[in-house]
Amino acid sequence: MGRPPDAGRRERTLARATDYVLAHGLAGLSLRPLAAALDTSPRMLLYDFGSKQELVAAVLAEARRRGAARLACGPASPVSRPASQAASPAQRLRGIWVWMSAPERAPFVRLFFEVHADLLAHPENYPDQAGAVTDWFETLGALFADVTTGPDDTATPTLVMAVVRGLLFDLTTTGDRERIGAALERFAELLSNSSTSGA
Questions:
Q1: Would you give the distance in Å from CA 108 to the centre of its chain?
Q2: Which of 68, 96, 116, 151 is least surrounded by Cβ atoms within 10 Å, i.e. has the fewest?
């Protein structure tokens, strides 16, 4: 029996592979140029991850983890302080939008939409893509705790993420920040009204 993969090396490779995919996308990704960029070999990538599909799945999971962690804990994060300290759900929603639509997060946004376009054509390649939605439930549930119906409410984070992602797709496609910002404001008003009516 061969030696098991080195966990530390795998973690370092995964971090660098995620950086690479965020910068270059998944379209046409092959192991040889990826390995060259990471100063390793295709054989070592397969040794550490088992297959290209498993490597891609690990990269996507790491990209989602980074996004959720930065949203929750980043220095400019709208959720880096207790929700009670934010004036309203609308302000928290605006904070999420400003953070997620910032130009420096465009690689993550493009990767997300690239993956979901490919998912429609090749669902067999993405066995764990439910995580692309559910991984955000805890962060958004905590952020909008005063709007949810309780700790088991998944409808509210689903709705918030659906609206934000829909507007991000619009922004990525059209670049029309003014119109999209007005739509975000309309949803922010509805969210705040929901909080007030539930009080």
A1: 7
A2: 151
pLDDT, one tens digit per residue, over 159-189 is: 999 999 999 999 999 999 999 999 999 999 9
Q: Residue 139: inside a domain, yes or no? A: yes
pTM here? 0.71
DSSP codes of every residue in 27-86: TT--HHHHHHHTTS-HHHHHHHHSSHHHHHHHHHHHHHHHHHHHHHHSTT-TTSS-GGGS
Number of domains comprising the chain: 1
Q: What residue numbers bound the domain in which 94 lies? A: 63-198
Q: Is residue 124 part of a domain?
A: yes
The set of residues, in sequence order, having a beta carbon less than 8 Å from that of 110 and lying 6+ positions away, is: 25, 172
User: Tens of pLDDT along 112-163?
Assistant: 888 888 778 877 777 666 666 677 788 888 888 888 888 888 898 899 999 9
